[in-house]
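Problem 12. The chain below contains 221 residues. Write out its predicted structure in token notation.
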Amino acid sequence: MSLDDDTPFGVTRRQVIEGGAAFAVLGFVRPGFAAEVNPVAPPVLPTDPGLSTMAVRLTVNGSDKALNLDTRTTLLDALREHLGLTGSKKGCDHGQCGACTVLVNGRRINSCLSLAAMHEDDKITTIEGFAKGDVLHPLQAAFVHHDGFQCGYCTPGQICSAAGMLSEHKAGMPSVVTADLTQDPALTDDEIRERMSGNICRCAAYPNIVAAIKDASGATL
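Solution.
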């Protein structure tokens, strides 16, 4: 049988093949086809009985913020989507890259793993709270001076994490690479790398980040 033989339905095989190729190349999709195959769940409205909200009061970068949030809202989403503080980045959303790091009551946390409802009255510092007007925070200035960023996506989390880890170091907290637990740990390159190991830089600017943190460690943070 040749390609031009008629089929029982009145079309030739050539017409069927040519028609299929056109759909594949041009991406034609029958209207409504995607919705039939993968129907989109209806949006959740504030009046839906299944939606549970609660009032949450946060102190963010020194300002009191009153929010009414879905109880499932992460701290990261509360900062980015509800307060417009987009410096903290959503990277892996699993607490593995550190791009979302913020300070809560002076301690660094992965904000993607923490619910906003857990932080009633907590004091939260994001990268937007570091500079004082046009004056950069010592860590920000050091990152600029040592070129501690390339694409910059991880930099807010790196700086927040660095501030937290320098406070931990000054308080005498050891890390897994601290050799002598009876002495205050020296701020060696190995100590910095270990303490910052939860923050990933996909541009691999690590040597510059370490240099920036060592430089800023002598400043009043």
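Discussion. The longest helix spans residues 155-170. Students who got a different answer should revisit the alignment rule from Section 12.3.
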